[in-house]
Amino acid sequence: MKIVVLVKQVPDTAEERKLDLATGQLDREAADSVVDEINERALEAALRIKDANKGTEVVAMTMGPDDATQSLRKALSMGADSGVHIVDDSLDGADTGRTAATLAAALRSTGFDVVMAGNESTDGRAGVVPAMVAEHLQLPLLGSLISAEIADEGVRGVRQGEGGTLNVRAGLPAIITVTERFPEARFPNFKGILTAKRKPVTTLSVAELGIPTGASRTVVVSTVERPPRAAGRKLIDDGTAAEELAEFLVANRLV
Amino acid sequence: MSNVLALIEVSHRGEIAASARGLLAAAATLGSPVAVVVSPAPLSDDDVARLGELGAARIYLAVTAAAGTVLVSPAVDALSGAVDAYGPAAVLAANSVDGREAAARLAVRVGGSVLADVVQVRSDNGTVVAQHSVFGGAYTVESVVKGGLPILTIRQGAIEGQAPAATANLQTVSLEARTEGAAVIDQFNDDAAVSVRPELRTAATVVSGGRGLGSSGNFVLVEQLADTLGAAIGASRAAVDAGYIAQTAQVGQTGVSVSPQLYIALGISGAIQHRAGMQTAKTIVAINKDEDAPIFEVADFGIVGDIFTVVPKLIEAVKARSN
Ligand SMILES: Cc1cc2nc3c(=O)[nH]c(=O)nc-3n(C[C@H](O)[C@H](O)[C@H](O)COP(=O)(O)OP(=O)(O)OC[C@H]3O[C@@H](n4cnc5c(N)ncnc54)[C@H](O)[C@@H]3O)c2cc1C
Ligand SMILES: Cc1cc2nc3c(=O)[nH]c(=O)nc-3n(C[C@H](O)[C@H](O)[C@H](O)COP(=O)(O)OP(=O)(O)OC[C@H]3O[C@@H](n4cnc5c(N)ncnc54)[C@H](O)[C@@H]3O)c2cc1C
After folding, report:
1. pTM for this structure?
2. Does the ipTM surpass 0.85?
3. Which of B190, B285, B297 lies at the smallest CB-CB distance from A163?
4. DSSP state of A19
């Protein structure tokens, strides 16, 4: 079975992330770039299938700037067999529509039985790219799963819905997205880091994928920064703090 | 006035989702609201009246056997039918698990673009302008679609108010049930409907608990304070991971974003990913035994102390004052 994991490089959520106030785009200097944690969980799920079934091939695919190779190297050091890096200046600032069209074209040329992605990235947070890819490829999407069983016959999973969960299934090929309920990812070990250097990474450009170079159609028209919050009162409890807090809540009409 | 479609979600038990109010309110600020509904059976008169009350001028009802058995694609088929029928200026869906997948597929099918996680909408001389709250409210961004249909996913609980009531004009179409290229639903496992508490996303007061609670048994302390204040219950990811409470209560980067009048954090350190979901609250109160916990940097009122001694006293003190 061939599994492609869609990996996005994002600014580290542990740092203060910034937007460029003139363009509304990410300020890539402000925070370190890392593999989005949700994509590491998706990769972990794929690697567990590979651990249990030797014939499994795991490919990590990303669309991103030159330095997104770091993210692919991380995925390879965790255990992915190969990487696909779609990089092209014309993709700078790509919106979800353009990203999905590009990923769909790359998936077509790479080939797969299952695509695994995150339910939502931590920067764009749109949660739409996998469903757009599914529509391009006319494939079923099992989105927002909290668990999944993947076999040659098809995929079964439990989807986190709004008022409960749903048991869902589809035949292969199919696309699934994982939520944070999936287990945390393994750390790359020493051997993994060494072998990662020898694993193949294919680079693809927009021209090679044969997709049009049109600009994104979603346009940011304004970006305004909010002043940071200031800290207020801080009491060390001497037995009376609860009383003072109750006073504060009453005085501010919060109870 | 141009038509604006709103995808109204209906549960498998036939209940209109709470997101309907905000979607129709947003649609009404942009044009004439058309509620798009997918259902296995015709709508009841009560449901038609209810959607009118919430502002729907028209209802486009797609009746199909696939509703409730095929995942999301019936909604996409219905929306694309409604796009053909009404030539809308915009399409709105909830930023819910189903809503965003439907919006995404529709965008590809009809050549539209998605404006995601929108918290406010306005029309600027006929151009649909969407407002987003980015990186935990640190930035307010406005965006538009240039060339193509704007498809907006609306953050649940973000739009206040209600559209003026209308008498909804019902149009019913029947939709072929297609399963190819789609995922199938085998079973619904509903959450036990126990909560009489307010909904987390829209509550005026939220009391959240973190790893500092120490056990799921101790999490009762959070519930007691919440019930004293008539509040919704939230949690940190560490509390969810530890199994103290359901994932749906998670506040933060990868959970729910809340903006209540009052947010009370109990035994939560205030990691940047937690703050990303609550720092736009009007007033923040934190109780934590670690004087250096980062939650105090955003708290209007902080107590350095043990939650197990402070919170019971707080409950008594609030009760004494409200009597
Ligand atoms: C603050 C902010 C707001 C934005 N708002 C919008 C908006 O309203 N509309 C819009 O069209 N664009 C928007 N964008 C641009 C959008 O983030 C990018 O187009 C991005 O490439 C894909 O969107 P996402 O991160 O929201 O993806 P999501 O749909 O949230 O991603 C889900 C999963 O898809 C996969 N995936 C997504 N992107 C890639 C990639 N580049 N490479 C490999 N796998 C990937 C990953 O598995 C990921 O976990 C915004 C960007 C930012 C930073
Ligand atoms: C990609 C990503 C996404 C994330 N998304 C989220 C998210 O959506 N929401 C979220 O919350 N986190 C999120 N996190 C996790 C986040 O980084 C923190 O790990 C988490 O918020 C910590 O939860 P906590 O404050 O409950 O636990 P801790 O950091 O362990 O803090 C517990 C606190 O309780 C205090 N305490 C202990 N006992 C007592 C007592 N008796 N009385 C008073 N105080 C006490 C301690 O002093 C400490 O400050 C995310 C992380 C990543 C990497």
Report:
1. 0.97
2. yes
3. B190
4. B
